Protein: M42 family metallopeptidase
Organism: Promethearchaeum syntrophicum
Amino acid sequence: MSESNLLENVVEIQRKLSTLIGVSGHENDVSAFIFNELKQHADNVWMDKMGNVLGIKKGTDPDGLRIMIDAHMDEVGLLISYIEKNGFLRFVPLGGIDKRLYPGSDIKIQTKSGKTISGIIGMNPPHITDPKLRDISPDHANLFIDIGAKDEEEVKNLGIIVGNRAVLDGRFEYNPDIGGGFMRGRAFDDRTGCNVALQVSKLINDMEPIPNTILYSFTVCEEVGGRGVPAATDGLNPDIGIALENTIAADVPGVPLNKQITQLEHGPAFSVADRRTLYHEKLLEIFKMRAEELGYSWQYKQPAFGGTNAGLWHTMHKGIPSGCISVPSRYIHSPIAMIKISDILATINTLLAILTKPIEI
Ligand SMILES: [Zn+2]
């Protein structure tokens, strides 16, 4: 595939994935899309009982490595917890969301039938708010979603029930002209990782067969504590695991360099350690070497923030050597994140080189 075809494909898949709603536990729309894409590029694709989408592309060497690449399909969001008599909805968060984002947010509620209904997280105007309260971040007990309904019955007739999921909505945009080209949109953590894995699956399928067997894993429920990945790992039985993530780039005004975690336009970010994992050092050396051979810059994800699905691997199946490669992103876990085109393309090409060349660890 030419570089311009790859770019076109990357943007289209990112647009599609970013528009789908898939809060932890309700990933069905995302998994259906990924299933259909992956089955075009793998020998065998299936869904396990948890809802993880798994696939295998068999290698030519029967003794070759089984390499699992994993990206999580779920995103942070809200769970509808109570419907008030007067039609307002109460909610609790699923995954890490900063409460300061809530007031005034544009909400999309996903009903069981797959319909989406818009709402607003209501907030009293400053005119009638105690000045002391304006500087305090809101409390869940005082927050509600307003869908414009007149009462509880109308809410229920719309198909909204306790347990429905909702997201803070954000518009997708691709802009090739500013800052070397960027995409912005909702749920980039971790639809970006899903996009990277899908692109690599297509590229590997289009090339001469390779010795290693590639195991594709698109997991549920990462944002609520990595609950999908143990089942996926049992189903795939890998020798090596590589988590694909969308990680924090805090390269914005007011953040000192030693706290930026990663920076946009510095290439793929390789993890050394985070709150869950001490990553395999030889695997890390291979990641760096492959990026450099391609002439890409790369960066460390500064230890030791966050955690990934790799956190479970290195303690499972007698210990699976684990790595993590991330596309840097500003504003993750907010309604709109931003990534640079150069970073996602470099991540895809580096991962492809890692998987298709020998790995000796
Ligand atoms: Zn993530």
In short: The first strand starts at residue 44 and ends at 47.
